[in-house]
Specification:
Blueprint (H helix, E strand, L loop, with lengths): L2 H25 L5 E3 L4 E4 L2 H26 L7 H24 L1 E4 L3 E5 L6 E4 L3 E7 L9 E6 L5 E3 L5 H8 L14
Amino acid sequence: MSPEVADLFSVAAAVLPVLACLVEWAGSVGISERHHSHHDTYVISSALSRSFAFAMLLMGAIGLMLGWLCDMGGFDSSADVVVPFFSAFVIVLFVLWALMRRYRVSLYDDFMDVRPYLGSVRTIRYDKIERMEWRGVRCGTGFRSLEVISAGERPVRLPGVLDLEHILVHIDRDDALVGGMPQRR
């Protein structure tokens, strides 16, 4: 591996976690549910987001320390292998963290706006919802993700890490909920 590429991995292992931690420190309000006068907004919890930033910081530091120890002769392995391994973890987790921080559901009186991980904001009118189905595996909240299917549109998936109980109460379309409310674990 060329020294320039190795340096890029070292920079990624050092800079991306610090950037994520600075954004978390400066930008998080600490609550995943915000009530405004005309709408409610739900985002991924700050505890989950901060744990990703901490994991990046920890893995980046371990990778840089082990790379340094390899260069000093402490291990028979090459720093050109060790640092990119840890840096790859940091880069993938940084992308996941950035996408999750972007996700948002805003609930209004008769429609909701969903800003997905990728793509533009989708507006779903409550009266146009044909059905809502539970999908995937249970998350730490005890819920699976909720897929909302509207007439003539692509389904929208609300991840189980959001406060789905409050979202469902606000939507108030129990008739469209296939299988009813699951019991929390």
